[in-house]
């Protein structure tokens, strides 16, 4: 029997660890190189649609997810200015409709579940404190240059996030773009909140040039709150370098956000005022993918934010990274069974994924325009939500069985 093939992975975030798990399950040896000193995530939450939870369950992570995630029963959409309820979506019904629940989870808990699944695997080697510097693809092998010695593999996966160095070398298509939107994030122990502000549901407040989303995480013990407002970091677009933007994930003055929310309904303002400290995040993205060759070339493929960084307005960035991982695992399985060359398998992976990723990127962009609408568009949005409700909020094309393969 042929010896297992080797996949090198740049980046050990949600996407990199999900890919390590999916590909090791298909018989590949995987080496992950993460530049940070630990596998860690920022203190914030992430929503996972049934399309993603289904994959985690298929990887036998269902019980671990059940222990740490929350499973909200309802989404409520409100107008941020009037406080009026516009529409609801029955999230509890997704278990029956889509074969898996809608989950909300602390990012560190999601990363920890993936880490606990891959760390014991004999075929996965995880290396911390190792920055990927570049690679050479000579057609037969990939040579990866890292902070330590060079390593060789059959394929390289760039799972190194928004500012991906692997993408820069593979596509040379410049830096991500600043969206002009800022995210203020906070995590609050529910027990410390007044009863009226505690919540077991997902709530979205849509306002002019802003919106706010809250949902439970940590099995319901904490409330994740994220507010999106239009604005740029000081220095405007000149600040758009990875280091300058990384500095922007810092504790920030709550007064800035309170001022931006000044015209909002009283219950929303009460929630914002209950947050003692926010972390500020500058949002950047790329336009939707235009071809499969933007997700894989030769022996190198991209996954997650390295391939398709998107606005978080469909709550699917991490979800698409996990879907990518599953598709990559399935594609690579055929290396041994069908004896197909690695570049062809990676091309097949990219072909399967790029259109769905582009669709999700485009829909997230559109959602941002709708969520932050002003004037007549806002009026039309509110009317449509009141009239059509669930029919607008539910997305079988996104959540449905086998949707990830379309
Ligand atoms: P990353 O998480 O960026 O991981 C990349 C990893 O690579 C990092 O660990 C980094 O240290 C490492 N790395 C980088 N360069 C190198 C190098 N040269 N060498 C070695 N290692 C390197 N998604 C959802 O699904 N649902 C949500 O509700 C949701 N909400 C969001 C809210 C906000 C405000 C934001 C900003 C995003 C949200 N997302 C959401 C999107 C989601 O966070 C990302 O899509 C996801 O984290 C991407 O994972 P990744 O592994 O591709 O990239």
TrEMBL record:
Name the coenzymes or cofactors required: FAD
Q: Any idea which UniProt keywords this protein has?
A: FAD, Flavoprotein, Monooxygenase, Oxidoreductase
The FAD-binding domain sits at: 7-362
Judging by the UniProt lineage, the source's domain of life is Bacteria
Q: What InterPro entries does the record tag this protein with?
A: FAD-bd, FAD-dep_Monooxygenase_BioMet, FAD/NAD-bd_sf
Coiled-coil ranges per the record?
none
Statement: the UniProt record of this protein carries the keyword Oxidoreductase: yes
- Asked if Flavoprotein is a keyword of the record, the answer is yes
Which protein are we looking at?
Salicylate hydroxylase
Query: What is the organism field in this record?
Result: Pseudorhodoferax aquiterrae
> Taxonomic lineage per UniProt?
Bacteria, Pseudomonadati, Pseudomonadota, Betaproteobacteria, Burkholderiales
Quote the gene name from the UniProt entry.
Answer: nah
């Amino acid at each position: 029997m042929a010896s297992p093939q080797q996949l090198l992975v740049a980046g050990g975030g949600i996407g990199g660890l999900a890919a390590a798990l999916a590909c090791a399950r298909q018989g590949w040896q995987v080496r992950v190189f993460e530049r940070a000193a630990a596998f860690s995530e920022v203190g914030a939450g992430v929503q996972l649609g049934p399309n993603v939870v289904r994959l985690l369950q298929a990887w036998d992570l269902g019980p671990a997810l059940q222990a740490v995630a929350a499973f909200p029963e309802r989404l409520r959409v409100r107008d941020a200015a009037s406080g009026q309820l516009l529409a609801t979506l029955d999230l509890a019904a997704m278990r029956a409709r889509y074969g898996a629940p809608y989950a909300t989870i602390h990012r560190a808990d999601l990363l920890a579940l993936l880490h606990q699944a891959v760390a014991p695997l004999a075929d996965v080697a995880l290396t911390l404190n190792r920055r990927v510097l570049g690679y050479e693809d000579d057609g037969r092998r990939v040579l990866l240059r890292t902070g330590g010695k060079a390593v060789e593999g059959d394929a390289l996966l760039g799972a190194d996030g928004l500012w991906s160095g692997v993408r820069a070398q593979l596509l040379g298509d410049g830096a991500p773009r600043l969206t002009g939107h800022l995210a203020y994030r906070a995590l609050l122990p529910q027990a410390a909140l007044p009863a009226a502000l505690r919540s077991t549901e997902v709530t979205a407040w849509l306002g002019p040039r802003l919106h706010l989303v809250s949902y439970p995480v940590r099995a319901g013990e904490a409330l994740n709150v994220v507010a999106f407002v239009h604005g740029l970091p000081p220095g405007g677009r000149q600040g758009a370098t990875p280091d300058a933007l990384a500095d922007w994930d810092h504790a920030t003055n709550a007064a800035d956000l309170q001022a931006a929310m000044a015209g909002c309904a009283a219950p929303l303002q009460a929630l914002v005022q209950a947050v003692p400290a926010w972390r500020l995040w500058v949002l950047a993205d790329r336009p939707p993918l235009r071809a499969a060759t933007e997700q894989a070339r030769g022996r190198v493929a991209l996954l997650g934010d390295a391939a398709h960084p998107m606005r978080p307005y469909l709550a699917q960035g991490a979800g698409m990274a996990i879907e990518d991982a599953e598709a990559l695992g399935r594609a690579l399985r055929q290396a041994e069974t069908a004896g197909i060359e690695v570049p062809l398998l990676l091309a097949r992976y990219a072909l399967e994924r790029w259109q769905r990723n582009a669709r999700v990127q485009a829909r997230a962009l559109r959602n941002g325009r709708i969520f932050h609408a002003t004037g007549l568009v806002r009026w039309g949005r509110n009317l449509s939500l009141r009239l059509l409700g669930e029919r607008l909020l539910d997305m079988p094309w996104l959540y449905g069985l086998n949707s990830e393969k379309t």
